[in-house]
Design brief:
Rossmann fold; 2 domains; about 10% strand; globular
Length: about 220
């Protein structure tokens, strides 16, 4: 019996393609050597994933420092000459004001068991975002608490301890195979992959993974 849901934040609850991100991308390509948005995003996302993978325990850093490191890298390697403080503020606003997917609020109203938000983002920004969106999950499980980002399993292990439940009584819903689903499988939590754009090759997934295209498909109580 499912007694609790862990719900990934970025990409699962909120959209990654949103106004502040688009404005940030436009500012980037106007003020550095890279003029192709796709190339820019590839570099930025690769850096974020690398930083998050190495962001564990004694090497843990907050999101603001990650942003500073990325902006410094672009300044040193791609002649970024824009206002880095302005760019940082755009980045912060993308964490706080990214819009919800349309199925998120109905999900919270419909689901009867506790729902915990799981995120690599810093608690202060998640709290501001949830307040802005008028959402009240049963708790937040963040990288900041355990000093480790996904795909490390620390957050989910902490969540298991926090809830006092068995892993097989918890479902983790996320949009990333490498970050969310792999963490769930390693900890014994039931993995649900949300594939909103129908782009996942299901034949490549572990048999334990349930694929959904919308939170509306989650029916257990």
């Amino acid at each position: 019996m499912i007694k609790c849901i862990f719900l990934d934040y970025t990409g699962t609850m909120v959209k990654e393609d949103e106004p502040y991100t688009r404005k940030l991308i436009e500012y980037f390509i106007t003020h550095c050597d890279i003029k192709n948005p796709a190339e820019l995003l590839k570099i930025v996302w690769t850096m974020i994933k690398d930083l998050e993978f190495n962001c564990v325990h004694d090497s843990f850093i907050m999101k603001d420092e990650m942003v500073d490191r990325i902006l410094d890298y672009f300044e040193n390697n791609y002649r970024l000459n824009g206002d880095k403080q302005y760019m940082h503020e755009l980045w912060r606003n993308s964490w706080i004001y990214a819009p919800l997917y349309e199925d998120v609020k109905p999900f919270f109203k419909r689901i009867e068991c506790p729902v915990y938000v799981v995120t690599n983002d810093d608690i202060c920004y998640i709290n501001q975002s949830l307040k802005d969106k008028e959402l009240e999950p049963d708790g937040i499980i963040s990288a900041e608490i355990v000093k480790a980002c996904k795909p490390h399993t620390d957050m989910l292990l902490y969540g298991i301890e926090l809830t006092g439940l068995k892993p097989e009584e918890i479902v983790f819903i996320g949009d990333s195979v490498t970050s969310d689903i792999s963490s769930a499988i390693k900890t014994g939590i039931i993995p649900y992959l949300i594939d909103r754009k129908h782009t996942v090759d299901r034949s490549t997934l572990d048999d334990r993974v349930t694929v959904i295209n919308s939170l509306n498909e989650v029916t257990f109580s």
